[in-house]
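ok here's the first one, seq then struct tokens
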Amino acid sequence: MNTNQQGSRAYLFSIVLVAVLGGLLFGYDTAVISGAEKGLQAFFKGAGDFAYTDAIHGFTSSSALIGCIIGSALSGFLATRLGRKRSLILAGILFFVSAFGSMNPEFLVFPYGKPTYSLLVVFNIYRIIGGIGVGLASAICPMYIGEVAPSNIRGMLVSWNQFAIIFGQLVVYFVNFVILGSHKNPIYDAAGAIANMAEAQWTIETGWRYMFGSEMVPAGLFALLICFVPETPRYLVMVGQDDKALKVLSKINGQSRAQQILSDIKETITVRTEKLFTYGFLCIFVGIMLSVFQQAVGINAVLYYAPRIFKDMGMDNEMMFTVFMGVINILFTLVAVFTVEKWGRKPLLIYGSLGMAIGAFGVAVTFGHPGLEMVTAVSIMVYSASFMFSWGPICWVLISEIFPNTIRGGAVAIAVAFQWIFNFIVSSTFVPMFNMHLTPGDDFGHWFTYGLYGIICIIAAVFVWRLVPETKGKTLEDMTKLWKRK
């Protein structure tokens, strides 16, 4: 292949592959808690200076999301000031520090293996540090891919970032499964005491540490490899480095096409940045609501608490079912990867919303009914699979491409910050809603929670149909013209 005239797909795919490692870490870091939370809970329940309540455990399980909100809110500023590449290097360092600190929060300060309130605070600080890395990666990885990818395959390449997120979750489900091995998670009796202390002792003392620490491997690899990818040509033009931008564009697109793209970029970047609402309120509103709906449909309540949900359904090996669900998620994410450029963004979002609604209503009707456990399990799979070929990848594709060049950094940061805010809301309200009862022992919380998610899915479908523009085949520079017409 003559890379001077046609560009090198191998070069493009290699730098995208490095960037999507950030997506893998995103999925790994957010899902590692699903296997570790029971051992972690039992460990801190052994503290002598405070009572580790369910409310505190809920906060500890979700504390990384606070960092995600901070990281995503800072992503626009950092992506603009440091650039996309250096911001991702920072994210990789934060991932590594968080993984090490979560595994060994006592490091240099506290006695090893002694649970205290101070140790809990330090543990949560390390989880928040990791969350900041996730927040940065969640906003900047798809932005990076969107800014280096040619328009005809941009949606597919950005969708690979979501594939990496789900693959990261599957990897950590499997890693947690292997680490747990023949050991047992703690089981509590009616009085709240651990009924199988002898069997669960290793998990309580050591198992959860290995689960958090396992993230150091992909985190270190990402931080190293991202040093070798180029900065995005759109950012290089914004900071006046046209020659470097042309060099990157030529390697990806070929020389003649690179000159045309560079001219289009310079035409839309008359100044380094513009005011956020330069292209109207609707532009920002659509981006924010895409993020809100991606979380409000409730998917992360399933992903974060999958083992606990399958256990409550009466499944004997909840970790095995969680791994199986991860495999299903991977397969349906590939549906989006290979159809997004053929079918477009809007149809996938609408069909996915309706599929999720069917799955959510199925869970609402059947959960907790003896003999219907497999129907409930299938409904959860339908719900999860529908998300994976629609809102999972396509939301990130749209957020990376619908905003004009001159406001992309700030607009993406705001949209992704809303995503993490609603992620935190959904994750922290799921357990209280799910356990609600109108009368002792009834299933009100079960059908109310999933019924609510189903209704939100239908509203999401209507929102996409009425307000979201189709971006298939359009260049990033076309977004400036699109929003100026509205």
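and now the second one, same deal
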Amino acid sequence: MAIELSKLLSVTIEKNASDIHLDVGRPPTLRLHGRLRPLNIPVLQPQDTEAYVKEILPERCKKDLEENGGADFGFAFETKARFRSSAFKQKGCYGLALRLIPSKLLTFEQIGLPEAVRPLLTRPRGLILVTGPTGSGKTTTLATMIDTINTERDCHIVTIEDPVEYYHEHKMSIITQRELGADVSSFAEGLRRALRMDPDVILVGEMRDLETISTAITAAETGHLVFGTLHTTGSARTINRIIDAFPQEQQEQIRAQLSTSVIAVISQMLLPRADDSGIVAAFEVMLMTPAIQNNIRENQTHKIVSAIQTGGNKGMVMLDDYLLMLYRQKKISYDDMFEAAQDQEEIVSKLNDHQSPKR
């Protein structure tokens, strides 16, 4: 008989792991500080993982799992924590990946979010993009920004999420949180509906298709502060990804719209701390300036990098420069800095200008 799911989830919370993986043929495995750590218990059998899935799978997700081979949903474990859960089929068996959602909202200082981002939260309109690979902390960053607005401004905030991870209470603002599958059928539909709900601030959990991207840009242009995410790294790549989602004949118009609607792109990733005590976030911050607006309009997004590099006095920072800062502060290892760098030759060159790398 396999260990009870409740005990596994309790261990995940106690050890403050970011995820737990439950797969056939392997012991339950935690992700601790970015690294996989199997628990010292027997490997899971097909009947074990099937029982785990059936224990927590919502009724509304059963059809999705059976017909499409996967289902994503939020799961509350007693009153201890919430998990973002992914149930799936592989080689005819069931599996589960559960991500622990921190129980309390973090501050700017706790996640290391650059202070240049804070003034953006008072803007009446515009598009703020938070980007990075899966598991880079985008949801946590967005939750912190939404909580700041909720605490300091009287707004109506509407979020469309898949699933809802952080629960926000009404503070100075009214906050409406809608979940894909439970409350609304798609991001695009949720965004269209949100525009009729008298919103001031809209969060779109993922801008994954042309309709959602187009509606988000329009919402930002028509007097709403819109937050969205993309699985890109770096500001120039993010802008290019959005433009490339549109047909060729629309791209010139979209470049013009983006140059006036986007107010910031925040890219981030998580790295293990050098002392193995946890993880630390690295950021890139692009703030819209007349020069960058022109780069986007003229299809010269490759020039955005130099605009960010020379925009330090405005609060802008390149991801590689942030990584270098974390390494010099001894917060991350040389190897992790090097592996995460966008331009590895350049980051080594900058480092060698000051010191020899210690591996």
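notes on #2: The mean pLDDT is 93. The CA atoms of residues 207 and 213 lie 5 Å apart.
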